[in-house]
From TrEMBL:
InterPro entries: AAA+_ATPase, ABC1_TM_dom, ABC1_TM_sf, ABC_transporter-like_ATP-bd, ABC_transporter-like_CS, Cyc_pep_transpt_SyrD/YojI, P-loop_NTPase, Type_1_exporter. GO terms for cellular component: plasma membrane. Keywords: ATP-binding, Membrane, Nucleotide-binding, Transmembrane, Transmembrane helix. SMART domains: AAA. This is Cyclic peptide export ABC transporter. The chain crosses the membrane at residues 91-114, 180-206, 212-233. Its main location: membrane. Residues 1-238 form the ABC transmembrane type-1 domain. GO terms for biological process: peptide transport.
Length: 491
C-alpha cells in the first residue's frame, strides 16, 4: 500500500511538474521565436522587406507562431505518452516474448498505415497553409479597402463571393481532406488494438492464461498513450510546416544589419553636420517577373549645411528612391556617400542615419514620442498651436491624445515630431501635398525659411512649382538621373 501510495504521489507530482515545466519552457521557446522573427524584420534591409509581401509576414507572425505554440503546449504530454508506451512495450516483452512479437507485428503494420494516412494529410496541410497566406491578403484588402467596397457594388459583390469566399472555401476543403487523413489514423490505431487483443484471445489455447490476462490489461492501458501520440500527429505535421515557413522567411531576411538594436543613443558620432556628398551613387531594384527594374543613378551630389534643396521631377522619376538611398535606408547601393568627408559603410551607416529626420510620403506616425530623447510638453503645445492643430489633439505623458486626424493634419503632427527630434538634416517627401492653399503657402514662405534660419539643412521633394524659389538649389530628376541642378532663381 505504501509503495502504491508513493507511486501515486510520484505520478501526480510528475504529471503536474511536466505540465508546469512544459508551459514555462514552451512559452519561453515561443517568445524566443516571436522575438527572433520581429528582430529579423527590424534588422532586415528595407529593400528586402519591401520585396517580401506584407501578408506573408503577418501570417508568419500570427498563424505560424500560433501553431508552433499549440504544438509546444502539447509536447510534454507527448513525451510522457511516448515514455509510457515504451515502458509498456518493455514490460510486455519481459512478460512474454512470443506474445510481444505478435503484438509488435500488428503494431508495425499499424504504424505503416498511419504513416501513409499522415502523408495524405500532410499535402493538404501545405495547401491549407498557403490558403492562410492568401486569406491574410484578402483580410488586409477587406479592412484597407472598406471605403471602396462600400462605394462600388460590383467590387463588393465580387470581392465577397469570388475572392474572400473562395479563400474560405479553399481552407475549408483543405482542412476537411486533411482531417480525413488524421481520422483514418485514429481509426486504424483503435482497430489495431482490438486486432491485437482478438489475435491473442484466439491463440489463448496455446498461451499461459495468467500471462495473457496481464498482457491484455497492459495492451488496453497502452491504448491511451498511443492514442494520444496518434492524435498529436496532425498538430506535429502542421507545426512542422509552420517551422519550415518561419525558417524560410528567416532565411529570406537573413542579410540583417547587425547592431541596429544594440543601442538607443542617437548621438551623432561623426561631428556637427557640415556636408553630405555622394559620388557615383547607383541603386537598382531587383528584377521582378522579367520587367526591367528601375535604376537610380549614377548620382553625384553635394549638400552643404544650411542649404535648402528641392528635388523635383515627374512621377516615377526616382525622387523617393533617391532620398531613401541618400538616407541609408536602402543600405548597399553602389558608389560612395560621405558625411563630413567620412565615407559611410556598414560600420557607421546607422550613426549616419542619426543626422536625418524624414517625413516620407507614406509615413507612419507613432502615437508615443519614444523616438525623442526628451520632450518638453510646453514646446509640443506651442508647435501644435503654431501648426493650427491644438484644438484637434493634445499632448500628455509622451503621447498625442489622438491620431484620428485628416491627412494634412497628420502630416503637421509628423512635422512636429521632426522639430522635436532636433536633427540637423530634415527630409520632406511631398509634405505639402495634402495641405490647403493657405497652409501650403505658410509651409513654403514661413516654416521652411524658419527652419533654415535655425540652421537646418532641408531636402524637400516637391511638385509645387510656384514655390520653387523657396529653394537655394533645385535638382531635377528624370529616369533616375539628375538632369538639371539649378539655382532657385533660374528655375
Ligand atoms: N519597392 C519597389 N520595388 C520595385 N520598384 C520600385 C519600388 N519602389 C519604387 N519602384 C520603382 O521606382 C521608380 C521610382 O519610384 P519613386 O517612388 O522613387 O518615384 P518618385 O519620383 O518619388 O514618384 P512620385 O512623384 O510619384 O512620388 C518607379 O518607376 C517605381 O516603379
Amino acid at each position: 500500500m505504501l509503495a502504491f501510495a508513493g507511486l501515486l504521489i510520484v505520478m501526480f507530482l510528475g504529471e503536474f511538474g511536466a505540465g508546469v515545466g512544459q508551459s514555462l519552457v514552451g512559452q519561453d521557446i515561443v517568445a524566443d521565436i516571436r522575438r527572433d522573427l520581429v528582430r529579423k524584420i527590424i534588422l532586415a534591409p528595407i529593400d528586402q522587406l519591401e520585396q517580401t509581401e506584407r501578408h506573408r509576414l503577418i501570417a508568419a507572425l500570427t498563424a505560424d507562431v500560433g501553431r508552433i505554440s499549440g504544438f509546444i503546449r502539447g509536447l510534454a504530454y507527448l513525451i510522457v505518452a511516448s515514455c509510457e508506451a515504451a515502458a509498456c512495450a518493455i514490460y510486455m516483452a519481459y512478460l512474454s516474448w512470443p506474445m510481444f512479437c505478435a503484438v509488435a507485428l500488428v503494431g508495425v503494420a499499424n504504424y505503416l498505415g498511419i504513416r501513409a494516412a499522415s502523408r495524405l494529410a500532410y499535402a493538404r496541410y501545405m495547401e491549407e497553409r498557403q490558403s492562410v497566406d492568401n486569406i491574410q491578403k484578402s483580410y488586409q484588402a477587406l479592412i484597407d479597402g472598406a471605403k471602396e467596397l462600400r462605394l462600388n457594388r460590383r467590387l463588393r459583390y465580387r470581392f465577397f463571393y469570388d475572392q474572400i469566399a473562395t479563400d474560405i472555401e479553399r481552407i475549408r476543403a483543405a482542412t476537411n481532406s486533411s482531417s480525413v487523413g488524421s481520422v483514418l489514423s485514429v481509426a486504424l490505431d483503435s482497430a489495431s488494438f482490438f486486432i491485437m487483443a482478438g489475435a491473442l484471445i484466439g491463440l489463448s489455447a496455446w498461451l499461459d492464461k495468467s500471462e495473457l490476462a496481464q498482457f491484455i490489461l497492459i495492451l488496453m492501458y497502452l491504448k491511451g498513450p498511443v492514442g494520444q501520440i496518434v492524435l498529436s500527429l496532425p498538430t506535429f505535421d502542421q507545426s512542422l510546416i509552420s517551422f519550415k515557413n518561419v525558417a524560410e522567411l528567416s532565411q529570406r531576411l537573413r542579410q540583417s544589419e547587425e547592431g541596429l538594436l544594440g543601442s538607443q543613443s542617437d548621438s551623432r558620432t561623426l561631428g556637427a553636420f557640415e556636408s553630405l556628398e555622394c559620388r557615383g551613387l547607383r541603386f537598382a531594384f531587383p528584377v521582378k517577373e522579367e520587367v526591367a527594374p528601375f535604376v537610380l543613378g549614377p548620382i553625384d551630389l553635394r549638400v552643404n549645411a544650411g542649404e535648402t534643396i528641392f528635388i523635383v521631377g515627374e512621377n516615377g522619376s526616382g525622387k523617393t528612391t533617391l532620398i531613401k538611398v541618400l538616407l541609408g535606408i536602402y543600405p548597399s547601393p553602389d558608389g560612395q556617400i560621405f558625411l563630413n568627408g567620412v565615407c559611410i559603410d556598414d560600420s557607421n551607416r546607422d550613426h549616419y542615419r542619426q543626422y536625418f529626420s524624414a517625413i516620407f510620403f507614406d509615413f507612419h506616425l507613432f502615437a508615443r514620442l519614444t523616438g525623442v530623447e526628451e520632450t518638453d510638453e510646453d514646446e509640443v503645445r506651442a508647435h501644435l498651436t503654431r501648426l493650427d492643430i491644438a484644438h484637434k489633439t493634445s499632448f500628455h505623458d509622451g503621447a498625442f491624445s489622438t491620431l484620428d486626424l485628416s491627412a494634412g493634419q497628420r502630416k503637421r503632427l509628423a512635422l512636429i515630431v521632426t522639430y522635436l527630434e532636433k536633427r540637423p538634416v530634415v527630409v520632406l517627401d511631398e509634405w505639402a501635398a495634402e495641405q490647403d492653399p493657405t497652409f501650403r503657402r505658410i509651409f513654403y514662405r514661413e516654416i521652411l525659411p524658419e527652419m533654415k534660419r535655425k540652421g537646418k539643412t532641408l531636402i524637400v521633394v516637391s511638385h509645387d512649382d510656384r514655390y520653387f524659389d523657396a529653394a537655394d538649389r533645385i535638382l531635377k530628376i528624370k529616369d533616375g538621373k539628375i538632369v538639371e541642378a539649378a539655382a532657385a532663381t533660374s528655375a
